[in-house]
Amino acid sequence: MATVQLTKENFDEVVSANATVLVDFWASWCGPCRVFGPIFEAASGQHSDIVFGKVDTEAQFELAGSFGIQSIPTLMILREQVVVYSQAGAVPGEALEDLITRAGALDMDEVHREVVAQRAEQSAS
């Protein structure tokens, strides 16, 4: 599957309509982004059940800012609308495949329980 260009206008719709979304925050001037781009594209062709989206941080600075992106490339994985992974830096192909496998193996019922517990703890403080 080809990658999807994510914008502030379509981000929520794409994330809510798909179980797993990998997001590459990038910019055209970024050397490591240009290295990671083909790796990300290749993985998107191997995982038709996952949406691979790209956020151009220059054009979508508000969206990048809403996630606190300070360094690019940054890879983010969302499952069931929860960020389960976020890390700056280009990821080698084998490591990306490992991340995809690990994200897919997560017990999302447990993840959702942890999110609820964290929010309750934050509200109490």
Structure description:
The protein has a 5-stranded mixed beta sheet with strand order 1-3-2-4-5. The relative contact order is 0.18. The protein has 5 helices and 5 strands. 47% of the residues lie in helices and 22% in strands. By secondary structure, it is of the alpha/beta class. The protein has a single domain, classed as Glutaredoxin (3-Layer(aba) Sandwich). It starts with a strand and ends with a helix. α2 links the parallel β2 and β3. The mean pLDDT is 95.
Describe the secondary-structure layout.
Layout: E1 4-5, H1 11-17, E2 20-26, H2 31-46, E3 51-56, H3 61-66, E4 74-79, E5 82-88, H4 93-105, H5 108-124
Parallel strand pairs: 1-3, 2-3
Antiparallel strand pairs: 2-4, 4-5
What features would you highlight for this structure?
125 residues; alpha/beta; Glutaredoxin; 5-stranded mixed beta sheet; 5 strands; 47% helix
